[in-house]
Protein 1
Amino acid sequence: MTVVVGWTPDARGHAALVRGAREARLHGEELLVVNATTGTAAVDDRYAGADDVADVRTLLGLLDVEAEVRQPVVRDVPDALLGIADEVGATMLVIGIRHRSPVGKFLLGSTAQRILLDARCPVLAVKAGEER
Amino acid sequence: MSGVEQTAPAGVDRAQYGLAAVLAVIGVWTVVDSAGLGPGFSDQVVQPAAFGYVIGSSLVVLAVLLAVATARGDRAEGEAGEDVDLGQGTDWRTLAGLAGVLVATIALLDWLGWAIVGALLFAGTATVLGNRHWVRNLLIGAVMSVGSWYGFYVGLGIPIPAGVLDGVL
Amino acid sequence: MTDALLTGLSLALTPENLLYAVVGVLLGTAVGVLPGIGPAMTVALLLPVTYNVEPSAALILFAGIYYGGMYGGSTTSILLNTPGESSSVITALEGNKMAKAGRAAQALATAAIGSFVAGTIGTILLVALAPTVAEWVVVLGAPSYFALMVLALVAVTTVLGSSRLRGFIALALGLTIGLVGTATGQARLTFGNPLLADGIDIVVVAVAIFAVGEALWVAAHLRRRPLEIIPVGRPWMDRADWRRSWKPWLRGTAFGFPFGALPAGGAEMPTFLSYVTERRLAGKHRDEFGKGAIEGVAGPEAANNASAAGTLVPLLAIGLPTTATAAVILAAMQGYGLQPGPQLFEAEPELVWTLLASLFVANTLLLVINLPLAPLWARLLRIPRPYLYAGILFFAVLGAYSVNFQWFDVALLALFGALGFAMRRFGLPVLPLIVGVILGPRLEEQLGQALQLSGGDVAALWSEPVAVVVYVVIAALLLGPLVLRLIPGRQGPERLADQVDELEEEVRR
């Protein structure tokens, strides 16, 4: 039984991670942290470097949660996340979101929306700054 | 250089035989074509056919050398460019998509004109290469193609054929 | 000579030409920063546009792009540990280690200032040498020209690249492409197609091989792990850094310029030599090598830029291109009906001196504009490849189409793009092909002339002393490595690429 977290090294990713860890500990489940990238840019700010990953492991160690971290290079990030959720039979998928203006929503699209609509397990969407 | 390590699989690089074959064909064709040339001016020392013979036959020789080298285990190292990670194999799907976009561009260019086809080219390429926001890509492409059309017309004084949109632009 | 230079300078500083210089420098740095895209591709993509612009303006633009590319490449190698330009591989060794140790600003500063110093000295040497060499060369006859061109072809084929066999294959292909067209009223290799009667436009070939070929190749290997970039503020150095840098700058320049000026010298060899020399001469700082020694950035970067200046000597004075970018610039000049070489100095002195003067301008602009902008350039690295290559293909097709507004040229573009892809797949080097396409027809011309004047006597080919010397050199280049391998007990000279890889292993330890 696994809680899957879609994580990025920023505020909302952190919020999702913390909440995901809490859920995992609450239900005695394992945590799977997924940080995917399409690999189509030379530098991707949403792809964690070695230091960030080390920090995450330390944090999860302190919270006493058993976790696996995956950083796959994929064709499409939401599809990959959902695919992994199916693969491990996730009990819950936790993602971080942030506020979008109407124009922003039109021009930039939404990963979160696709995940919410296509997921086969419950999805918990957490805003940055709301982790508790 | 990224210093990518290539574990050379055992066995012969058969694709290189293909390359050798193509080279040989080009070489033979060049020689044949040269043979079909009439003589040049009577006092011209280097006949028009001369270079063709030399180059064509060199190609055939090189093709043979390549085949021999391949048989002895020579493997082609794909060019490890600065931005390419060869450890991941060839993505034929994307490549085919890109080829398709190019073919479509060639086919449609005269009919629809640059302003439309340029936009399609940009959007098509961006989408094939993985960016899913095709509406946005079309918009950017349209701006670029119409912009470049006007740029050529106003800035350089050259009207690019407008195809279907002739009279509109 | 100084009057000519001053006249050139005054022309280079007109608002219009200055604008072109600024654009060139910015564009050059931008493409230098982006891995996979380089000055050669950029100049090729701009070829069609510039045909409708003043030659001097276009050349100033290209010169800016050329010098800018060197600068941009070092930014990427330092911050990202992957070279933006292949000539910046060595810079990445120490530069990235410095960045990881928190000294990115110093690394960037020494690279930038070293580039400026080397570029200025290199350009001064260029200004001094090119006219002199041109004067010598102008008295040479067709036999010597022929010999020199053969040397250029042999040199680009044998000195660099993974295997000489592949180099020669690329050369032969290039010469074949150059064959297409009409010679003395007879159509060659045109497949009976009237559209090919004028030959294949070099613009189409260059854009196809550089831009479309690269795009196809990248499309096939699109995704890779993103790299970690080290954030940096404004580049700067303290006094100790300056003291440690200035001698490597000068030594690097001394290495770079001669190698750049030799056929197929290029920049890889002098940067490697500079690094090794700095390490040997480092004295008390020796231990820092491998962990971020500033000398290891200062020397190679200076060598890099000096080599770029050096490359312009054979290009302008003799008309021989020794790097891919030089080859494309040569194609551009030919497109204007200009033939670089000694005749150019006589026929269009104003143009040449404006170009030379604007190299100084570009060099200075690079330092002034780019030093504060370094953090900004790093942001370019976040542009996703789909957009980058969509843009490249867009301009490539536009360029090919604008030659004659025929879809046929775009079809040729696609065909040669596929060739470019195949070349990358099979490890065939691009430079011999391009040089073959450009020099092939001229080669035939010179051979024809040489034999014409002697009435068909082949001995005319070695009748001039320069020609004889050149042939000896060619023989040495071709046979040298073979002979060395035959000497019992001695290994063939190691390929430069292998030596660089060894170095990388050592440093990464």
Note: Chain C touches chain A at residues 34-35, 80, 82, 222-229, 378, 381-386 (CB under 8 Å).
Protein 2
Amino acid sequence: MGAGHAHPLYLAGTSPVHRLPSEVKIVAAFLGVVCVVATPREAFAVFGGYLLLLAAVWTVARIPPGWMARRSLIEAPFVVLAVLLPFTGAEPRLEWLGLSLSEPGLLGAWNILVKGTLGVLTSLTLAATTPLRDLLLGLQRLHAPALVVTIATLMLRYIDVIAGEARRMRLARISRGHDPRFLWQVGATARGVGSLFVRSYERGERVHLAMLARGWVGEMPQLSDEATTRRHWVAGLSPVGAALALAVTGWLIT
Amino acid sequence: MADHVTAPEPTAGTLRGSAPPPSLQVCELAFAYPDGHQALFGIDLTISRGERVALLGPNGAGKTTLVLHLNGILPAGHGSVTVGGLPVAKENLREIRRRVGIVFQDPDDQLFMPSVGEDVAFGPANFGVTGGALRARVDTALATVGMSEHRDRSPLHLSGGQRRRVALATVLACEPEILVLDEPSSNLDPVARRELAEVLLGLDATMLMVTHDLPYALQLCPRSVVLDDGEVVADGPTRELLADPDLLRRHRLELPYGFTLS
């Protein structure tokens, strides 16, 4: 973790995409994914269009495609299912390099693969251009439930505190000869997790007191007074317009 | 600290117009926890505006319980607390919490927002300050504790002393009537401890400091109150109290090794 509250999916920058208000980007990413999902799977060329559209956004945001590609590997475990489909799918089958593949299975796999990948790439684009803190502000401005925003905000702050506590407890355990590689010592680790939970719970109570003491009444106050203008929305939603045009084209050509 | 007052003035609560009401007035405060444990037995304590008072006492004396009464987190079982003339009661709770600024012992409990600036803004924003006024509050509070350049950092990346000063700033930004510090010097290295003392001495604020650190109390607070077993057992100039070895021994207080006062 670098300075501030950067996360590994964030690429610091000052491009127009970075500067857009986060709620605009959240809405744009969501609608973009909806367009992708609504496109018929046989409209192969249209999916290439989506990729070009994303590549255009990356160019504006100065995100190197390689950087994006490495992080998109997060999708890999989900691809396994898609790879199985052509072998297990229904008739009719076709022969390819001596393999008998199911035609609906191939289409199904393609459908999962291409839409999943485009969805992941869209989310990664959002994450790469928006710090976590701004994502939460965006959710708050979009009127996400106050409780969810509060929990996420506190999580953002305390996840490292709790991880630090867990690390210190582990050090204290192994300093006294604990070696969890041995099965019979796993119990100590489990008890450690239990006491970590209790400690975090107690900290939660203390944090709650500290919040009450500073006048908290159940909702995070709006701390940023930067207004989102119509220009922001038009700029942010213009790629969505292009995506919508692509989706419509997809329906027309199939 | 020009208009510093050392003598307590027990009648200040009834004064009208002439002098400001005392920053804090606690009358016959008693409290028992739901499990029946009686923590406070009739506490009387008056702190005038601008005074700096140390609250001393062994563990379990009821210091924290008393502190949680000052801003109404614990409701008084018997007796009353008034802050700047305003009684601590359910209908005044919001204003009371603005007036009583508590700096908790562990800054990780106090600093819960993702960045220093947001944390300092949290209190005043809750009390209805917005826009430019809110920014000004944050700027002033951070400048007072010398942390202006760390505004956008996460509290996680600050040292212990810096966290403590930011925790102080979060409370100063609410412009409290009385500042309550719970063990301000705990877990600080000597330099951070001195730096915090310098910040605190530079503040023009009424202060109640809960501490075990007797030299710190001597340095910062001209007056001390000793609490033991839920009762005020001594109240007077800090130097006199700390020079009384019998009093200290009776209430499990002890000066550090090599320390003598005469």
Note: The mean pLDDT of chain A is 84.
Protein 3
Amino acid sequence: MPDATASIERMTETELEVRERVLVEEGAPDRTRPAPRLTVIKAAPRWPHLDVVELWHYRELLGRLAWRDVSVRYKQTSIGVAWAVLQPFLTMVVFTLVFGKFANFPSKGVPYPIFTYSALLPWTYFASAVAISGSCLVSNKALVTKVYFPRVLLPLAGVTVPLIDFAVAFTVLVAMMVWFTVWPSLAIVFAPLFVAMALVTALGVGLFLAAVNVRYRDVPYAIPFLMQIWMYLSGVVYAISALPDKWQWLLALNPMTAVISGFQWGVLGTQAPDVGMTLISLASMIAMFSIGLLFFRRSEPRFADMI
Amino acid sequence: MSAAITADALSKRYRIGELHGAYGTLRDSLAHAGRRFVRREPHARYEEIWAVKDVSFEVREGEVLGIIGRNGAGKSTLLRILTRITTPTSGQAVIAGQVGSLLEVGTGFHPELTGRENVFLNGSVLGMKRREVARKFDEIVEFSGVEAFIDTPVKRYSSGMSVRLAFAVAAYLEPEILLVDEVLAVGDAEFQKRCLGRMEDLSESGRTVLFVSHQMQAVSRLCDRAIQLRSGEIVDEGQAGEVVARYLQSVGGSGSSMAWADPESAPGDGLVRLRSARVVLDDGTTADAVDVRDAVGIEIGFEVLRDDVPVYPKIKVYDRQGEVAFNAMDTSARWREPTPPGEYVSTAWIPANLLNEGLTTVDVGICSIGTSKLVSHAGFRDALSFHVQDPGEGDSARGLYTGQWRGVVRPLLDWTTEER
């Protein structure tokens, strides 16, 4: 290729710069060959940040990875997608008997089964998103040690996968609402936002745990335990709003309290969550996500060497 | 011609602990932190090594560059840096163009998914777009020869089938720059040959190729230029044939004898220790070069420390291309009983007219027979090397022919010919 003139179109200043340039051959431009990507490989910086341009370049792989996990998940199980419904549904039945009937926990004025099922939906999503993304690097060891791609894709695919289960289990909620004649209010437009909040929180926790898991193989054992405790602090079995006011801010530090009460507000039309508390949860979510991402990106250069 | 790869002072440092992939449990780390706090122990000190140090080179577009060196010289680490699997500790490299590598064959194959699904998955793992894979799909499947099973989960494939399918995907990848590490390439000799073939095709079509290999012949045949690494540093570079020749000389020249003066650092365990090894002729002299018509002895000196199990001296002989020519072990009756402690010298005699010409390398070791495999007690890779030469006087297997003579061994057979 004689005398190619280069013009640098865009440049991002990250660990791995991907600069694209347009090469124009003298005379007739060569249309058969795409412009080569210029990749700069250098030492990892101390304070990395997320390269969104690169992530966009790899979007197709994200889709493939998520799709792979979904299809593998249901391929070898005999009742397949029914698991997505059975798990929250049976938990709901048990909770209704134990906490609703015997303990008589507060349920915001809706029938206890529907109260707890509508809380279990985002919660089950969150718990499996954390479990999948928290162990994604180790479970994809062959990929991590053999090919390059932005590692963030793995936890990202990990939190996407349980959305399918969530959608399936959601249809049962609709059926229950018809049965109990509970109707949503206009606030239903906010429900997806609270699900997104669960996703970002799960991603933050998952990124952190995934990076820790590369070094310590204890993580998969710790996750179920962590999730169990976390559930009782999130208002799945009782209404958080029934607790003393002076503790509300402390509980709000757990983003899942906002997710669950917000989701219930949207879907069931229960009392709207306190704006102040929701903002605390939102700030806490951003903090968790940032810490998780930063920790992940800082550990990233050593994943392939240590895993 | 512009540069396809420019490496500038690339370096990679490992801590020894990391290199072995050691991962602890949280408990270990907490316990260690606790001890440090209580006894005021210093931080654990890691030994550091530079797997790649200050490596600079340039590969021009369309050039084929070979990288040679002994095991552990840093070749694979360099390739891992260039494929961005790991980051360098310092220095930088600029790569112009899409990179593909044949060392990732089958990466991301999932046993539960069908062949079809895996082709798409593997394609996108290797950086192909969905449309690109879809366009080449039929060709890929045809090339792999598994058409009939393309909708069967890969877990039902034989290992040969899944390797063929995986290779087909990689072969239809059309990178501008191809990285090949023959050591890491999975699969049998047949498969490695296909990797080499594919590499040749690509280099002929003007692609840039970086080729890491132990097969010196392949390097001098396929590559334009070569660099030699030793302990992570470039020690030689230039025209491929010349670099290979100098490398072989440096490996072969010092290789006809070895001695471990300090018993503490000699290879071995609590049972056996190596003391010396050398290449001998029947007059007892040490030799670097051996006439193909003469028998050559591999002498191993070792020390048995305890009376435990019978141990056997063993050699493994490689031909000039690094292929195992044969293994041999002393199985005489004296080794049936547990070997009494003491110093021994064993010599294995390789008959005349057996080895082919060229550089022969030998691993020496002492082993015992375990339940299902040999247990190595002391061993040293590439301990010895020597050149086998044929003066061409017409009384060896090649007769008066002086051209290339292939084969791991070159026996002088008895021929009978009758005229009918």
Note: The domain at 3-251 of chain B is CATH 3.40.50.300 (Rossmann fold).
Protein 4
Amino acid sequence: MSQPIISTRHLSKTFGQTQALIGIDLSIAKGTTTGLVGPNGAGKTTLFSLLCGYLKPSQGEVEMMGHAPNSPAIRGRFSILPQDASLLKNLSVGKQLMMLAELQGFDNQQATAESKRVLKAVNLIESYNQTPERLSHGMQKRVAIAQAFIGDPEVILLDEPTAGLDPNTTDAIKSVIRQLSKSKTIIITSHNLEVIEDLCEQIIILKKGRLHSHQAVSELTDRTRALTFRLESDPPADVANIFSQLAVVTEVKLGQPGQHRMVVKYEAEQHAMAEIEIIKCLAEANIAYREMIRGERLQDTVADQTR
Amino acid sequence: MKGLRLSTVWTLTRHDLYYAMRSARGLLFLVFFAVFWLWLFSKMVGGAAQWLSNPDGNMLIGWLFDPQIARSLFINRAPTLSAFFLLAVSTMPVFVLFAASDQTANDIGSKYLRFLTPRCNRLEIYLARFIGAVLLVAMAYVAVTLVATLISLFVDQSGKGSLLIDAVLVMVSLIVYSLPFIALMSLCSVVVGSAGLSALVGISVYVVVLLVVAILGYRMAGAAEVVGYLLPNATKPWILQLQWSTWIQAVLMVPLFVLGYGYIGWRIFSKRDI
């Protein structure tokens, strides 16, 4: 792994009697795009807030670019999309972005140009003179995303960047993030694991306040070792038996009742033939499927791991 | 003070003032303040304050405040400007507790500070909000002092030179007197998440300590005097005399209050979750 740009050591946070995070040791490499996921109450927002310096650790420490998150040495070198922060009510979004740009060292003219640039990036330039009160929730979200793109931050932390956005805007935002990820370190928290799968190389999974795993997304969604089927109905419990004569099949996993999901894992070296043989087996057993994808869906593997 | 950038503090202060002039909180303060003073000035234009220079009026002021303050303000001084000063000092807690109640409170509640903290540190935010509140209050009091001075120039028979010197002293005194109140509100606004609550906390603290002082005063005058120094208006008797000797005493006391309240507020703000 290259030099870590963000690291935590024995990081813990308690709120009264509740332990939200317990002994998190993390190391995030420079230039990677990392997803931070976990079920509700796993500690995602707490960890995110500690990384951003919003919360103070109860124990342990956070280092960003070699400094504490509140260190003056890294001002303007990282940017954040906070999930539930509100913009000022009575000021136009253009003016607010300009003010934030000025705090990053832009002069008045540059700040105006920068605020327009980032609003264009989120397709919201027509709202430059409008106050947040007159914008929809999705549009306010886009303004909040725009402020995270001001300047040239080395690290961008995005908390639920696509929550509440329509599909077109989600695609536009994903495209901007994808573009930025070529040159920056990005951390994204999201419940939408399709977004994480689409954008991230690494994934951090939290479970009940502890670090469950930190690994490459590709390890969880290996395209050459599994086929995922969405079936017409739940498969029979003994469905694994239909693959018994296929030596190449290593494991059969079934989804929860009602999910109509089946994952068939096989030996990677023989994947070209294995896929055909598996489909033939299904046809012979008269099991119909609506959809088949190579690999496992991140959503399913994460759900399996955190259940 | 490590990492404090004055240019950032100034930028934050400019933004805060700009927003204060457009926010409901800032406009509400300015409207109430303006209406209150317009009403009082409309009375003063008719020379209503001149009666306070008479022995009867002077006795009333002496009874309400202090005979020394009555003599100092209304004998050989322009009564209109003195009446304005007396009223301004007496009503200051109400206006300043309101005007300075939202230094950080609403932004903690709405989590707007989360947009600021990647760009500036908490000390810069805390200082800038204090300075912004000071400038807002100072501008308001400078404006009404100018109006009071103009009215006094037309209505009172005092010498213009001495009146103008007094006007400057009144202006500076009001700003100095407001500083501990603003610092108290810096402290109150870091412990709650809304401007309304912050004002309520400020007013409650003020009233509770006043009550404690009043109750203690019956039995233990010495203790009451000591507790009274917790209040931001402890310099009031000195400021009100408008004499250089007592004025300097007050000016020397004010930094202690500002630093005391400000430091406690900063300790809380620097450690709290935002």
Note: Chain A has a mean pLDDT of 88.
